Amino acid sequence: MRASRGVAGWLIGAALLAAPLSAQSDPPRSDLAAIDYAAERAAIAHYQDADQRLQDVGWQLVRGNAGFCPRVVPAIGLQLQDMASYGAPAIARTAIGLTGDFAVQTAARGSPAAQAGAFARNREITRLEKLDPNQWPEGKAMDWQRLVWAHDHIDAMLTEHGGIAIGFADGSEARVQPVEVCATRFELMGEGKTAVADGARVVIGIDFPAFVYEEAVFAGVVAHELAHNVLGHDAWLDRNGRSRRHVRRIEREADRLIPWLLANAGYDPAAAVTFMTRWGSQHAAGFLMVRKHDGWDERAAFIAAELPIIAEAMAREGRADWASHFRREIDPSGGLAAKPGK
């Protein structure tokens, strides 16, 4: 699904909010002792478990397909958390045992951050190269801006210096070098049942039903959203208009790319058919089944038609090279202004 312009700003904020705490804002200091911190830790852990699953799958997809994406970036697979992004920062800080505001959220499985062995969940962070993000001005509760700055700063260090040194509250540090991945971030919303992509991010609500599916099948929905980004759909719709016909074409194209992305990530590409069949039969009137899409059975058939093509490519080349062999539904250069003199 595409992120509409009207909700784009909301998605940035909502996607970076952590688990909802029982208190909507910090209570008076005299009331802090009455907080059920075990329940707060459990709520935070529930959110982090879902985020870990999303980051693990997302990393597999962007790393495995880096050789075919039109734009790649250096990455280490690290997600941070900022207590300012919680509804009650003081409660969250106490619940997970921090003195400052920044800590590890997730290290994606198989990523350089995970392989470094230094980025345990909730480990407190005091330095990103030479900057301490805790010193940045803190906004009101549920403010997401500092967390965006922190991730942007990490990306800048990886691009400019080929690595980053991250310091911890105990005085130690870990230096991590990146690898190339497809240029997409994955973000979890603290509520909601939708999944969207906006060209740079894939954003999925924590209540999205596919979170309960086995990993390869859950990867199908993440791959669908990633497909929108790597195929440039958002920019193409901006140039050519968001008519029902255009949206149906890009949705069909994203569906058909799912098994290619899964194959390169080490998943069974047939899991894409399982995802569409299971999802469509259970949620035919829901998120992916609006009239701008084909019917779920048609969509499953379009996906299934890609499987023998992928199998042949894998047998011949050892990879599912969709950059060379995938048939586009749209002209990706459509709507681009001609160069002077052409």
Explained architecture:
The chain is α+β, with helices and mostly antiparallel strands. The protein folds into two domains: 11-182, Roll (Pdz3 Domain); 208-325, no CATH class. The protein contains eleven helices and ten strands. The strands form four sheets. A three-stranded antiparallel sheet has the order 4-5-6. A three-stranded mixed sheet has the order 8-10-9. A hairpin with a 3-residue loop joins strand 9 and strand 10 (201-205). The relative contact order is 0.13. The model is unreliable at 2-23 and 285-291 (pLDDT under 50).
CATH architectural category of the largest domain? Roll
Strand content: 5-15%
CATH topology of the largest domain: Pdz3 Domain
Q: Reading side by side through the largest sheet, how are the strands ordered?
A: 4-5-6
Quickly name the level 1 CATH class of the largest domain: Mainly Beta
> What percent of residues adopt helix (DSSP H or I)?
40-55%
Structural Rg: 21 Å
**Total helix count?**
11
Largest sheet: 3 strands, antiparallel
CATH fourth-tier homologous superfamily of the largest domain: PDZ domain
Shape: globular
